[in-house]
Amino acid sequence: MFQKFSEKSDPSSGRARVTALRARMPADGLDAFLVPHADEHQNEYLPERAERLAWLTGFTGSAGSAIILMDAAHVFTDGRYTLQLRAQTDPEVFTPEDMIATPPHDWLAEHLRPGMRIGFDPWLHTVDGADRLSEVCEAAKAELVAVDRNLVDAIRNDLPAPPLETVTIHPLDYAGETARDKTGRITDAVKEKQADALVMTDPASICWLFNIRGGDVSHTPLALAFAVLPVEGEPTLFIDKRKLPVRTEAYLTQLATLRPPSEFEDGLKALGEAGLKVMIDPGLTARAIADTLRQSGAALVEAPDPVRLPRACKNTAEQAGARNAQRRDGAALAAFLAWLDAQGPETLDEIAVVTALEDFRAKTGERLGMDLADISFDTICGSGPNGAVIHYRVTEKTNRKLHSGELLLVDSGGQYHDGTTDITRVIPLGEPSSEHRRHFTLVLKGMIAISMARFPKGTRGVDIDAFARSALWQAGLDYAHGTGHGVGSFLGVHEGPQTISRRGMQTLLPGMIVSNEPGYYKAGSHGIRIENLVMVRPAETPEGGEIAMHDFETLTLCPIDRRLIEVPLLSDAELDWLNAYHARVREEVGPLVDDADVSAWLEGMTAPLSR
Asked: Which domains are assigned to the chain?
């Protein structure tokens, strides 16, 4: 099993740990200390060593931050984790905050007093983030203080060692471009910014650039490393050689000078001492890196990571891999859903569902010639009221029996060497209620609206986010998360810069893969989310049109449960889309199914719907 079900959160430890942190703060003359959910690379999912926020507060979500003062403690997260935050933290110790409505720097602006000293770890805050904090502190006549050692690490006696998982070579058949060709392209982009070198801190960009994959972060094939890419000369990769098998080390030695991470700061100082202009992404790069470069004499060129867009716009091989992975994943999901329908709800619990799904993915991958390398994130499997917890993760403590008359939300994905998948389906356990069907169909209308969208060049995710919400808004409903996130190619299941959301300012470009996942959540009752992955296609002028328009190719191939659909709520165009989608699922997934019962289930679930 890739997924574990032990309880990672312990709310009861929060008081003692915050007390210990407060006892440590006066030694640095601090009135407050900031604890973000972050590591030196600004990863979304963290190695165990970097899970400081979870260790301190009990909150295990992938987005959050804490402000610890001598007399109060505030924990911030977004709408995905509102219920989880309250469940995982001690309410007598921590006050929950909405980081979207009031980000930590805005909260500080309202509560700082003159003379206060606010401590932060400069390796865990980006240049942009630290600048915002500095501005707030200056305006309040307070001081932002960089600490030499993280205070949470200082009070821990169980600090895990850094991860040392094996690094492998990502085959050219799946990468579609050699590492040398990629570095040439990126070097050209650095030249265009009139910089002499690029400092790379994002492991996803580094893995993509050098065509390597690792295992330092759960469910995401990242090798933690830093890199320096000069315009002239050989790149330097700062990576622990203990991760490198002989073949991988020999491969990387042909591409870069290999140095241990402990020498990274020396490498930064050398850039400054040489008087170079160094390009960094201020939204990704740690403040400590920028400070080291400046103090050693480097001139900083601030610009977005030039690897992110090439990485996001999948090449021909990556697109083919994504399609193949989705077909294979669709066959696994068909077998799983057919099995689930054959069970009596009361015979299963959430953990049994999660383990069965992982088993179906593993067996299907093995049968079809592509092993499941990992799941792409801990499966979200919420029955009844647990489905309303947007990023619910089942544990031995929260595990719940399935009951007839409820909905089961399953959000899951697989990591295959040719692609990363992410899909959400909702299954009725027994006969769904009219409320279940209405809410489901309103969400489905939003998912279809994105699936059918046409949009001109230059359109951003923010411009089409409302398409998915329109039917819900008409009914006075909404959901507290974005509509879509980017997805990597055997990399992160959440990949920037593209999103479909209220903050999605990146232009949608051909080859970008993004999720399409509107939802609705009724606290204490049920949760609904329908998610397919889609890929932006090149713009073409529609017949009779005047302007070239992009549209989406739907990649995910899995039935949408017809028992939850109120057909009268669908327009003719929506019903046509749904029937065409199901016909395609039947055509592409059917030949990959090897069980007669699964084939019969697939035929029935993808049969055309009519009025």
From this structure: 11-155 (3.40.350.10), 168-305 (3.40.350.10), 313-605 (3.90.230.10)
